Structures are given as structure tokens and as C-alpha cells.
Amino acid sequence: MEVKPESRYRFLSIREYPKITEYITRFDTEATRVNSIAILIGLLTGLVIGVYDRTLQYSNTLFGMQQGFSLHEFPYYYVILMPALGGLLVGLISHYLIKTKYGVEGLIETVTLRGARIKLRDSFLEVFTSIITISSGGALGKEAPGVLAGAGTGALVGRIMKSPERQLQTLLGCGAAGGIAAAFSAPLAGVVFVVEVIYGELETRTFIPIVISSVFATLVSSTLFGIKPIQISPYQLVSPYKELGLYLILGLLAGLISTLLIRTLYYAKDLFSEIPLHPVFKPALGGLAVGAIGLFYPRVLGMGYDVIMDALNNQFTFKLLLILLFLKILAFSLTLASGGSGGTIVPSLFAGAMLGGAFGTAANILFPGTIAESGAYAMVGMGAVFAGTARAPLTAILILFEITRDYSLILPLMFACVLSNVMSNAMHPESIFTEGLRRRGFKIRKGREVDIMVSMLVKDAMVTHVQTVSEEKNVGTLIALMQASRHAGFPVLDSKGKLSGIVTLSDLRSKVKYGEVDKKIGDIATHDVEIAYPDETLEAVLKRLGSKQIGRLPVVDRRDKTKLLGLITRSDIVNSYNKKVVEKVRDTD
């Protein structure tokens, strides 16, 4: 009997198919899907940041704000009017085309309170207005718009992939991390920035995709576009014991400057909110003030990377460093508070470089030849002031480390960043990003676990189809309506359909005698009405309902308090609360 040689090829037996199916299924998981999408987001974010960076460079050249900008190249009126004209253009776009302004503060709110639902058109328009603001002389940075562009890219990819809400939060974080990583060529800093600032907590399911996206974004931006924002010469400790004491003092001073920067910004915001001027013209007014400062000290205009590098290379006197420090804080606050678009990261690095440079210059006068040059203190000051303003010491440390690629000053850098963070937190508990949220009633805690009542707005719970009554109708009609609907109160409208009051069962009992069914509803209604707005938190409305001992509030437009938008009751709030609790439990399962 002839034995046939065994073929190199064979068909799989039926028993082996389940094993292969099981093997494939292991890779077909949610984690694998998210990680794959994270690669795509990283690649796209790197491209977006590269295009943004090139566009900003061309725009800077167009406006005359490229590195090496000299006041003598332009007439004085151009320097004053350039930021004002840029501000006017930004004001027009912001008022007529952008409904929601984000920035880092808005991203924190979106991720924490809004389920990562970001308006893509608004986010990319805001990135565009940041180019106009910065290139026309606005004293802001490009990194926060980069974060927003990355977050918008992540959200766009998530929507195209029809990702659920929980995944959208992760993908938005992937884009934001890629934005920082690509802008600084600092992938680790991008990851930690999102964890420290935007999420406020570290979760295993979000960490790996964020790392993946950050790495790929950096790869694209550095390889294709060669983005390297700041080049710093390496420094090292000369007298460790003596200098650590000096860096301790620098860290405490950085905490003071961080607090000054935050408070100056929000004081300027309060000031501009009280100015009786149309919102379109406020950025122009801020730009005019910044241009006036730039007329005498043009180094405060724009981002100021070249000025930072000069400070790191010991090019400035003690007096000039202090002047630039305080004028930059003022110019930054005026630009952002008036409505300009841009970031807070580079201005805080600028302020830190000037503070550290001035401190290092003074220290070298006191201890000549025995400590490092002033540039070393300028570098540490950059990280320390950023850590104090953003409450992100790890991000500050990693950004400076990844820029320099040098460990020599890592110990004093860590020392100063932590001290600055502690000092500024003691003086002003909120960061530059969360202060605005606190002022609007949102309690954003470290760890980002927020009360459900704070995370939800009136518009999430209110009833929009409201049964109303006319003030011209009689009480008999009201009684019949209450009996038919089993509602104990209704908004009252005048002849023009405008809200004039509210009428309840208690009004009937206290103001109508037996048999007075022909009495007008307008005569018994309460006209001094407590109202609610769509953008208020449920917590604030619930407190008002409790303190006034009422059961319902009409919801009106902030710009027209007679325009009825809906009605919110205690039961609406309770039902929305219960629904949200169920959703959160489902997400954790």
C-alpha cells in the first residue's frame, strides 16, 4: 500500500474553528477599539497642530509679529492700532458666529459636567480667532488653542465612529493630550496635563489611549513640521546646599506671582463686564490698551517665545525683567478679559521666566561666581509660575524636562513647582482654569467627582411644553383647568403673550371668595415672580424653591425676562436626578 507524503498544507478541522474565533474575539474588545481610534486621533491632532502652527507663523509675518519684531520698523500708530483691529475682528466673529467659548476652562466643564458634548464649529472658530488675537499682538499663548483643536479633533472622530458618551470623554482627552504634546514636543507632559488639569483624576481605561494619542501626535508634529517652541541651554546646580535655599525662596515668590496673575485676570474680567459697551467692541478696547503698553515695551506683545529665550540666555537687566514681568501680566489680563482668544500657559511661562531671571540676577549680585547663572533660575521660574497658576506641578516639571532633555535641574525644579503650588493654593484655592467655573456656581473638586445637582442645568430638567393661562380669563376657567389637569399652578401671560406672573392653588384659596368665579386671573396672580434661567444649576434652583417655599419656577430668557421658555418643578428636578443616578450606575458597570 502506497503511503502519500504529508502535504505542507492542510484544512483546519471543525474542532479548531472555535479556538480561532475565541482568539480573534480577545482582540475585538472595547479597549482595542478605543486604542485604535486613539492612534487615529493622535495622527490627526499632530497634523492639525502642525497646520495651526504654520498658519500662526504666516499670520505673524503678515501682522509684523514674527520673531525679531522691532518697534522701529513701523509707525507708532500701527503698534497701538494693530491689537485693536485684531480685537475688533475677533469681537465680530465671537459675537455673531460663536455661541459657546471654551478654552481649557470650557473643556473642564465639558468633560466633567456635559458628557464631552463639544460644539465642533464653535471650538474650531475659537482656534481661528486665537490666530488673529496672537498675531495682531494679543499677549496670549497658542498652547490652549492647540488643546482645544486637539479636543475638537478627538470629539469629531468620536462622533464619526458613533462612540458612546463614556468613550467620547476618553477620545476628547486623547485629542487634548495630543494638542499639548504636539505644541511642546512633550508627550509625557501632554498626558499628565490632561490627567491633572482636565480630568483631575487618573483612570486606567483612559490612561493608555491618552498615552498612545500623545505619542503619535508628537511624532507627526515633530517629524513633518519640526515644532520645537523653546530651545534651552542646559544648566546645573553649582552650590547645591546654598542654591536649594534660593530655589525655595523662588518657589514661594512664584506662588505669589501666580496668585497675582489669577486675580489680575479676574479683576480685569469684572471690569470689562461692567463697561457699558457692545460685546463686539470690548476686545478692540482691550487691544487698544495692550497696544498702548506695547508702544513703550513691544516685548510684551504676542506670545513672546523670543523674549523667554533671551531671559534664559541672560540677556536682560534686573530692572527690565521686573518691568516685563508686571506689564506682561497686565497685557495678558487685558487681552483675555476683554474677549481675546488664546491660552494662559505661555503667558505664565513668560511671567515665570522674567521672575526667575530677575531673582537669579539679584542672587548672582549677592553670591557672585558661586551659583548658577540667572538663566537657570529663569527656567525654574517658568515651571514654578505655571505650576501655581494651573495647579499642575507634574505637568510643569515634565514640560521643562522634555524641552531641555536634561536632568541637572530636576531637583530644584520639582522643589520650586511644589512650593509654588502649595503657596498659590493657600492664597487662592482655585486655579486659573477653575476660578471661572466657581464664579458660575460649579463646584469642580479635585478628582472631578461633582454633585449631580451641580452637574445638571435647568435646561436639562425643565418642561418646555407648558400649559399657560391668560390674565384676561376668569377664575372659573382656572378652576376647571386645575381640575382637568391636576396641576396646582400655571404661568400667566398678558395679551401680548409675555409672562406677567404665576397663579397657584394657594392664590385661589387666599384671594377668591366663594362664588367669585368671574374675577380675572390677572387680579389674583402673583406678579412679583421668582424665575429661573436655562443655564442655572439644579442645585441653585432647588435651594431657591426651598427658601421661598414654592413648588415651581417659570424659566425665562436672560435677555428678556418676559419671554417664557419653560417651567421647572420639584418633581422635574427629582426625576432628572434619579435618571442621572441610573445612568452613572450603568456607566460604572
Automatic annotation (TrEMBL):
Compartments where found: Membrane
Topology of the protein relative to the lipid bilayer: Multi-pass membrane protein
Transmembrane segments annotated in the record for this chain: 34-52, 76-98, 171-195, 207-227, 247-268, 280-297, 318-339, 345-367, 379-401
GO molecular function: chloride channel activity
UniProt feature coiled coil, ranges: none
InterPro entries per UniProt: CBS_dom (IPR000644), CBS_dom_sf (IPR046342), Cl-channel_core (IPR014743), ClC (IPR001807), ClC-type_chloride_channel (IPR050368)
BP GO terms, sorted: methionine biosynthetic process
Segments forming domain CBS: 462-519, 525-583
Keywords (A to Z) from UniProt: Amino-acid biosynthesis, CBS domain, Chloride, Chloride channel, Ion channel, Ion transport, Membrane, Methionine biosynthesis, Transmembrane, Transmembrane helix, Transport
Superkingdom: Archaea
A GO cellular component entry from the record: chloride channel complex
Pfam families linked: CBS, Voltage_CLC
Official protein name in the record: Inosine-5'-monophosphate dehydrogenase
Originating species: Methanosarcina horonobensis HB-1 = JCM 15518
